[in-house]
Amino acid sequence: MSNKVKIIGGEWRGRNISFPDVAGLRPTPVRVRETLFNWLQYDVVASHCLDLYAGSGALGLEAASRGAKRVVQVDNNAQICRQLKANTELLKAEQVQIVQQEAFRYLAGDAEPFGLVFLDPPFAKDLVVQTANWLEEKLWLKSHAKIYIEAERHLTLVGMPNNWELLKQKTAGEVAYYLFTRMS
Question: Tell me, what DSSP letter sits at residue 127?
């Protein structure tokens, strides 16, 4: 069974993408994506974007639709990666690369600095702070990179990298979402 989510802006505005029925997979809601991309309106065009824990692919494909130069979507689930690949082929999204790999294994590899990162790990696995620190420590971020984080509303982000500044924060239902910038 396949589910659908709509791209809300840019070249592919109004196009539906499919995502598999996988436990724990929850696409970023439309209203949250609208808010996020309003926050990022000057940061997406020509950006190099990393979509960790890509899931439905909605965030990375939204960025590509809005002019990101390169998008790397990373997910460890083979079924999800097959669907991400099918979506990129359907949209002819040549700037999008799909990597089937566990996020920490990917981050342990050769670093490529990104200016925009989407970090939306599975809930209830306590991955946000560790992933954020690996992004910083393993040199995956450009100076002044923007980092979007989506997490459980009750999660406290203690131990985030010291040089990250919180720019925006909101909640929607059980979801909290944040926009950080890297200060150096």
Answer: -
- Output the pTM of the full model: 0.96
Rounded average pLDDT over 114-120:
97
pLDDT tens digit string along 140-168?
999 999 999 999 999 999 999 999 999 99
User: What is the arrangement of strands in the sheet containing 114-119, beginning at the earlier edge strand?
Assistant: 96-100, 70-75, 48-52, 114-119, 141-152, 175-182, 164-172
Residue 100 to residue 53: CA distance in whole angstroms: 10
Determine the Cα–Cα distance for residues 159 and 90; give it in Å rounded to an integer.
40
- How far CA 157 is from CA of 87, 92, 162, 176, in Å, comes to 33, 37, 12, 11
166-169: long-range contacts (C-beta < 8 A, 24 or more apart)? 167/39, 168/39
- Reply yes or no on whether the pLDDT at 184 is more than 80: no
Category of 132 on φ-ψ map: left (φ > 0), alpha (ψ -120 to 50) or beta: alpha
Secondary structure of 156-182 in HEC code, one letter for each residue: CCCCCCCCEEEEEEEEECCEEEEEEEE
